[in-house]
Amino acid sequence: MYLISGAECFDPSPRGQVDVLVAGGQVIAIVEPGTLNVDAEQIDARGKILVPGLVDALTHPCGGGGEGGFGNRTAEIDVETFVRAGVSAPVGALGTDSIGRSLDVLYGNVMGMRTQGLNAFMLSGAYRVPAPSLTGDIARDIYLVAPVVGVGEVAIADHRGTQPTAQELRRLAAETQLGGILGGEGGTVLVHVGAGDSRLALLREAIEGSDLAPSVLYPTHVNRSTALLDEAADWALRGGFVDITVSTTKELIAAGDITAEQALRRLLEAGAPAEKITMSSDAGGSLPVYVDGELVGLTAASPGSLSDLLRALFADHADLFPLALAAMTRNPASALRLNAAGEIREGTRADLLLLDPAHGVDSLMCGGNWLLRHGEYLN
What is the required cofactor set for this protein (predicted)? Predict the structure, then answer.
C-alpha cells in the first residue's frame, strides 16, 4: 500500500492537492490531504505533479522506417525508454514495412513489455490494405488476442500506401469495430494521413452512407499541414478523434509541420472539442537528419517528446497543460476504447506518473508497482 500525498493532482482534470491511496494495484481512495490514517508507505510528493501514466496511441516498439532500404530502419525501443518517458500504456504498431517486420514480432515485443510491467497494447494490420493479421481475421485478432485493440496505421493520402478505396476502408472499419464490440475493448482503425492533397476525403467518403460513426476511423499526423489540420477540426466536429504527432524536427517544421502546441491551439480555435484531440509520439518512427540541406541520415522519434511538451507547457503555457495532458491520457484511451488507462479514479488500475516541474519525469507506477522512483529505473 502507498499513500501519495502533497502533489498537485490532475486526473487529468485539475484536482488540486489530494492524497491518493494505492493498494492491490488499484487506486483505492482520493481524499483531502491529511484525512486518511492508514498503515501504508508514505510518499511525500510535495512540489510534484501527479497525473495518469501517459497513453501513447502510436509507437513503433519494433522500430520503424525502412523506406530507404535496410540501412534506414530504426532500432527497437526498450521498456526503460518508455518508463523514463512516463508512458505506462504504449500502443505498438507496424508501419510502412510489414514484411521485414511482422505482427508476430510486434506481438512478442508487446507481450515482453507487459511482462515487465507496462500496460502495453498493439494494433493489428499495417499501412497495407488488405490488412495483415495474426489469426487471419482482423475481428478475430481484436476479440481473441489480448493486447490487440485495433488496426493501424493504415495509410491514406500517401504514395507508400496501397491506395485503398472508400469501400475497402469502410469494410476494414466494420470488421475492426465488430472485434471491439465482441471483445468489449478496442475496435478502432488508426489512419496514417500522408502529405497527399486528398487529405481526409477518403475518411469522409468511407463514413458517408454507412452505419459507422466517425470515431471508428482515427487519423494521425494531422499537424502535417494547416490544410490538413483544418480538415481534422471538421472531423472532430463530426464526432471523430484526431491525433497530433508531437515528435518533429526543425526541417519538418520548415517544410510545413505544425508544432504540437500550435496545432492544439488551432484545433481549439476552430471549434474542435477538446475531448476529441489526442497527442502521440510516433516513437520509433524515422525522422530525417539534414546537414546544410543534405540528407545525411535518420534519427528515431522519442516517447520522451510527450513529457517534454508537458513540462514546457506547465512552465510557459499553463492554460494548455490540462488540455494537452488529457490529449495524452484520457482522450487516446477513449479513442482506442481502452478500459484501464488514462485516468486517476477510485477503482481503476494504478498507473500514476509524478512529474517534477523543473526536471520532468520523476517516478512512474504501473499497476501499483513502481517502475521508476526518483529517476531510478527499478526493473
Answer: Zn(2+)
**Active-site residue numbers?**
282
pLDDT confidence bin for 286, thresholds 50/70/90:
confident
- pLDDT tens sequence across 51-97: 999 999 999 999 988 777 887 788 899 999 999 999 999 999 998 88
Q: What angle do CA 348, 349, 351 make, to 5 degrees?
A: 120
Rounded to whole angstroms, how far apart are CA atoms 228 and 137? 32
Cβ–Cβ under 8 Å, residues 350 and 50: no
pLDDT category of residue 272 using cuts at 50, 70 and 90: very high
* CATH code for the structural domain at 52-335: 3.20.20.140
Per-residue cell: 185: 475493448
Single pTM value for the model: 0.95
CATH number for the 2-51+342-377 domain, one of 2.30.40.10, 2.60.40.10, 1.25.40.10, 3.30.70.260?
2.30.40.10
Site of grid cell 475531448: 275
CB-CB contact of 89 with 55 (8 Å): yes
